Amino acid sequence: MKKILFILFLFTIEIVKSQSSIKAINLLDEVSKKISSYESIIFDFTYSLNNKEEQIKQETNGNITVSGDMYKLNYLGATQLFDGKKTYTVVPENEEITISNTDNEDDISINPTKLLTFYKSGYKYYWDIKQKHGEKLIQFIKLIPTEENPDLNYLLLGIDINSKDIFRLIEIGKNGTITTLTIKNKKTNIKLEESFFSINLKDYPDYYINN
């Protein structure tokens, strides 16, 4: 009898996990469908890093404009621009521009547009906690890497349950570091000039060009 009850218990757990995963995937599909319908997205963000053991607490702000695969990111006093072919990183403090070919589509740090779609593969999904943030009701989805990751335990992706927009991304590191990216002031389908994602190096005559 005990063996039968134990098997039933494990079977129940698997059913709950499956239902949790299906709910999470369905919500992520709604978010992905909405994001892909935008011609352009502009938003501000806050990025915080916290490690209690190392007594590290930092918070910075930035903003980004995205259209298709192209983007312009302003962060930490620098501007990074991807025109669809190359990435240009402009650092006024050093009077330097670094130009690089971008071909690693899976690297979020290289292509910030992936912040909005990275979750579509490489993870197991589970329905997690629901929280109130001001007038927003945020449903968190837990993302666990399907392959061993030396740095990452799991991610929590917070989604505005009413608007189906991404609100927050929390990364739980294996070294105790928690990083949080919160999206604010999002605007969509803003008409941009054709030259918005381009750069004229002649406008930076005194800059060192690292090509």
Tally of strands: 12
Q: What would you call the structural class?
A: alpha+beta
Number of helices: 1
Can you tell me the CATH architecture? Answer: Clam
Strand % is over 45%
CATH topology: outer membrane lipoprotein receptor (LolB), chain A
For the termini, the CA-CA separation is: 71 Å
- Main sheet: which strands, in order across? 7-8-9-10-11-1-2-3-4-5-6-12
Largest sheet: 12 strands, mixed
The unreliable regions are: 1-19, 103-111
What is the residue-averaged pLDDT?
82
Order of helices and strands: HEEEEEEEEEEEE
How are the elements arranged and paired?
Layout: H1 2-36, E1 41-51, E2 56-67, E3 70-75, E4 78-82, E5 86-91, E6 96-101, E7 123-133, E8 136-145, E9 152-160, E10 165-173, E11 178-188, E12 208-210
Short key terms for the protein model shown above:
211 residues, alpha+beta, outer membrane lipoprotein receptor (LolB), chain A, 12-stranded mixed sheet, 1 helix, globular, disordered N terminus
Walkthrough of the structure:
The protein has 1 helix and 12 strands, in the order H-E-E-E-E-E-E-E-E-E-E-E-E. The model is unreliable at 1-19 and 103-111 (pLDDT under 50). It is of the alpha+beta class and 211 residues long. The protein is globular. Strand 1 (41-51) and strand 2 (56-67) form a beta hairpin.
Compact description:
The chain is an alpha+beta fold and 211 residues long.
